[in-house]
Amino acid sequence: MKNPILTIPTAPIAGMKPGTSGLRKKVTEFQQPHYLANFVQSIFNAVRPTEGFTGQTLVLGGDGRFFNLEAAQLIIRMAAANGFARVLVGQGGILSTPAASCVIRKHQTFGGIILSASHNAGGPAGDFGIKFNAANGGPAPEHLTEAMYAASQVITEYGTVDTPDVDLHRLGTQDVVGMAVEVIDPVADYAELMGRLFDFPKLRALFASGFRLRFDAMHAVTGPYAHAIFEGLLGAPAGTVVNGTPLPDFGDHHPDPNLVHAKALYDVMMGADAPDLGAASDGDGDRNLIIGRGLFISPSDSLAMLAANAHRAPAYAQGLAGIARSMPTSGAADRVAAALGVPCFETPTGWKFFGNLLDAGKVTICGEESAGTGSDHVREKDGLWAVLLWLNILAERRQSVADIAREHWATYGRNYYTRHDYEEIDTAAAHQLMAGLRDQLPSLPGRTVAGKQVQLADDFSYLDPVDGSVSAKQGVRVVLEDGSRIVYRLSGTGTAGATLRVYIEQFEGDPARHDLPTQDALAALIAAADELARIRELTGRTEPSVIT
Ligand code: VG1
Ligand code: CO
Q1: 488 with 434: CB under 8 angstroms?
Q2: Residue 34 near residue 13 (C-beta atoms within 8 A)
Q3: In the annotation, is 21 catalytic?
Q4: Would you place residue 494 in the very low, low, confident or very high pLDDT band (cuts 50, 70, 90)?
Q5: At residue 2, does pLDDT exceed 80?
Q6: Cα angle 473-477-483, degrees, rounded to a multiple of 5
């Protein structure tokens, strides 16, 4: 019989450097001959143990976007050729990012490949992405993504097998040249984990008492999870979950749960007869948007409020070991950590930097200003987890989201916070802008910005307290004498031009001033941010594309 394993000669393709979260490119780029195969083989080459993949299991799933199914078939073939014993794949190729992390950990596998470009648009003209998570269930740390990139620059061949497609819709085990492909229910393991973390009987009682949730799955991956958990296990009425069917192009929307792309949800929550809680998630289910009746909760505030109240959910009843937040995320969580008497860690942007802290047991809850919150239950941020924790807190406190927020600010003070994104600006202009800021850094301390003295101006560098690795150039920050901050960095997830993110924060201790519109409260700093970086002048933009 002819050997079904094929070794295909190939050559390096430029530009395969993973960004903040995996390799993201236009679908059309991934569709080029050998492109996906080159990167998958580069992953395998970078992570292969000396003894090979014999006996190892790979987890595979994605957010349901266009090109996921073709990619899944190729990866299964390549896993077989590379010697894996088993692939666990979500039915229909579906696994949310947090569910993939859960499956990797629960089944003690080698790791997993997640097919997603997260909040980026999908469809044939949209984006595709691929990321590798290690055995702890977390995103590959920087030394591994660097190794993948290095492997992609010297690749000469990849392995695949000449076999028909597996049926990804049929649950159960199929054989691919001696490798077992097990198609699993993408929701089951994850739902079971959520049931252990939270007080489901109490949440059922909450919904039975008439509590109203509106969850917008944005036609992305959380639809099946949200239907099964909220409307199934917790008995919320049908219609609680909207846009709950994953579509390859997300219904032609960006699956980004922010105030631009989830505007419909925002409008419902600000309208008459709004539900008690509005929430949304992104393409791959790791982000969350939280809106109370009449009040948007900034992700930075949500992290702080969840941390302050986490002990009300069974999983966190014993308290928190510590809290971690990404550098641009507001200091609201730091105030909670201080009150709890636990450490607060400041990491670069991207969930991969939380993995070591979580593995070492140094932190229990982590979060990013970009609507990512999670805990030590998996090694990814987790959108539905955040919604369930909010629900559990609401069920215990029996107060509105707005009342909880106002009490929180009265206790800890309010960190007014906003992020301004300038999307798809000219790449050269973006780099010029950042270089201009870096040049100013030495002369900024002592200067007056927005009426206050600059206390610290630097390009954030992170020393990982667990493995001692250093990640430099993680964002320019200008900190004023009262702790107010302006932070600038370029996005590492876009696929067209550059995206400048400007993060602005100011603390307000006086409860009489806790109800200002955020953009008004921060107006002086917003103007100063433009002046310092010459944003209008260099980008030609008069306003941000997205304000959160
Ligand atoms: C963005 C966010 C970052 C997040 C990353 C991945 O990165 O700012 O906080 O971890 O997306 O999230 P960047 O480099 O574009 O700022 V997701 O939901 O795309 O996996
Ligand atoms: Co995401």
Answers
A1: yes
A2: yes
A3: no
A4: confident
A5: no
A6: 145
How many Cβ atoms from other residues are within 10 Å of residue 531's Cβ?
12
| DSSP for 22-44, written as a single string | BEEEEHHHHTSTTHHHHHHHHHH
Pocket residues for ligand 1 (CB within 6 Å)? 20-21, 118-119, 282, 286-287, 326, 349-351, 368, 370, 372, 491-493, 501
Q: Which fold has domain 5-184?
A: Alpha-D-Glucose-1,6-Bisphosphate; Chain A, domain 3 (3.40.120)
Average pLDDT over residues 93-100: 98
pLDDT tens-digit profile of 263-319?
A: 999 999 999 999 999 999 999 999 999 999 999 999 999 999 999 999 999 999 999
User: Where exactly are the structural domains of the chain?
Assistant: 5-184, 190-412, 414-547
| Fold of the 190-412 domain | Alpha-D-Glucose-1,6-Bisphosphate; Chain A, domain 3 (3.40.120)
pLDDT at 259 over 90: no
Ligand 1 atom with least separation from CA of 131: 20
Out of 131, 330, 349, give the residue to mutate to test ligand 1, the one with the largest number of ligand atoms within 8 Å of its CB. Answer: 349
Annotated catalytic residue, options 21, 118, 298, 484: 118
* 1 pLDDT higher than 60: no
| CA pair distance 302, 298, nearest whole angstrom | 6
Distance of CA 192 from the midpoint of ligand 1 (Å): 27
Query: What is the value of pTM for the model shown?
Result: 0.93
**CATH number assigned to the domain covering 414-547:** 3.30.310.50
* Residue 326 pLDDT > 90: yes
Nearest-5° Cα angle at 381, 126 to 182? 75
Query: What residues flank ion ligand 2 with Cβ within 5 A?
Result: 118, 282, 284, 286
| Cα 286 to middle of ligand 2, angstroms | 5
Out of 119, 493, 501, mutate this one to test ligand 1's pocket (max ligand atoms within 8 Å of CB): namely 493
- CATH topology identical between 5-184 and 190-412: yes
- Cα(342) to centroid of ligand 1, in Å? 26
Q: Does position 140 have pLDDT exceeding 80, yes or no?
A: yes
